[in-house]
């Protein structure tokens, strides 16, 4: 019977499994599967361009730290919105507090030449590549 269903092309012929897989793809059980924030990394020839989506953050909320060939981007929110009625009781109280952290291996990058800018919720990092080491040769005198 399952071979007559249009979903029969899947490796598992159970229609229930199809919907289970669909649900898992939208609502992953393990939150570690989802990155803290989305990034794009482009190879621009002599440098890489890393663009990180950080909407709602101010420039002061973002910290870039470089240590031992590891670039860490941390963004922290600490925002409170309160709506009270005329008696001072809360009708709505929303808080958004949290931080996002992501690290990137920057081996092969000129660490002292990294530059960053932040505009319209997008952090842009220019990561200049290290040049190819030129082979060095020298003449050795015989004594």
Tell me what the structure shows.
By secondary structure, the chain is mainly beta. Helix content is 8%, strand content 43%. The protein has one helix and seven strands; from the N terminus they run αβββββββ. The protein has one helix at 15-26; strands at 39-43, 47-53, 62-67, 70-84, 90-105, 115-119, 122-128. A four-stranded antiparallel sheet has the order 1-2-7-6, with no helix packed on it. A three-stranded antiparallel sheet has the order 3-4-5, with no helix packed on it. The radius of gyration is 25 Å and the shape is rod-shaped.
Lateral strand order in the biggest sheet: 1-2-7-6
Point out poorly predicted stretches.
1-10
Tertiary shape: rod-shaped
| Fraction of helical residues | under 10%
Radius of gyration: 25 Å
Taken in chain order, the helices and strands follow as: HEEEEEEE
Annotation field: number of helices: 1
Query: What do the pLDDT scores average to?
Result: 76
Portion of residues in beta strands equals 35-45%
- Which structural class do the helices and strands define? mainly beta
Question: How is the main sheet built?
Answer: 4 strands, antiparallel
Number of strands: 7
End-to-end Cα distance, whole Å, is 90 Å
